[in-house]
Amino acid sequence: MTLLRDRELASAFDDAARAYDLLTALNPGYTADLLRSARRLRLPGGGAGLRVLDLGCGTGASTRALLRAAPHASVTAVDASAGMLARARAKPWPARVCFRQLAAERVAEEEGPFDAVFAGYLFRNVTDPDEVLASVRHLLRPGGRLAVHEYSLSGGAAHRALWTAVCRGVIVPAGTLTGDGGLYRHLWRSVLAFDTAPAFAGRLARAGFTGVRVLPVAGWQTGLVHTFVAGNGSVGGVREAR
User: In the chain, which stretches have pLDDT less than 50?
Assistant: First the structure.
């Protein structure tokens, strides 16, 4: 099972950027699930006075979800793919949103601290998730909050089979039609190779995050996609999410 990594993966996203929003729009619940995960950060006051890092922002769907969940927050959105960022930047944004081209493995170069970090569909695509988690924790202020929205299977055989069926029947054929079959085969295989939801929760705890919770999304992706919420220390850490 060969997966795309680093520059090869960023290049694949560059090529796929032109059709990416169209394909994700065909996924029932895609936007609603991102918004649900962003709201699970439970940022107070609509995010007023808070700095939020959107890690792996792609074409800006996660950034839009963050602004809906915390409309007054300042958001720094980063991604390794120049093509995806070009699509994101072409959309209308308030002045408190800025975009930067930066690989997740280099996120420690970003100037912190941040009050919260949101990572949508990122961690199964990085070579060393533990290194990136260490950088994220370094960038979070004490008591800061992390929400990870990710394809992380429940661990049950039925959900693994469902994911493969959906990829073979819908996702890979659709991606092939746009000329991006390689990226969507990577999507299929990267989910199978990634941590199950309990395993990723354990990874977060070993990285030093506290109050780790695993929450499902609704609809057909239940058991396939989860929100992971956690805090950086006990002060202001995540205690409850819905």
Answer: 235-242
- Name the one residue in this structure whose structure tokens are 């354990």: 202
pLDDT at 234: 61
Instruction: List, edge to edge, every strand of the sheet that includes 140-151.
Output: 97-101, 74-79, 51-55, 114-120, 140-151, 225-231, 210-216
Among 234, 226, 214, 207, smallest CA distance to 120 is for 226
Q: CATH number of the domain that 27 lies in?
A: 3.40.50.150
pTM score, whole prediction: 0.95
The parent domain of residue 137 ranges over 6-231
Average predicted confidence (pLDDT) for the chain:
94
Largest separation between any pair of C-alpha atoms in the chain: 49
64 in any annotated domain: yes
> Into how many domains does the chain fold?
1
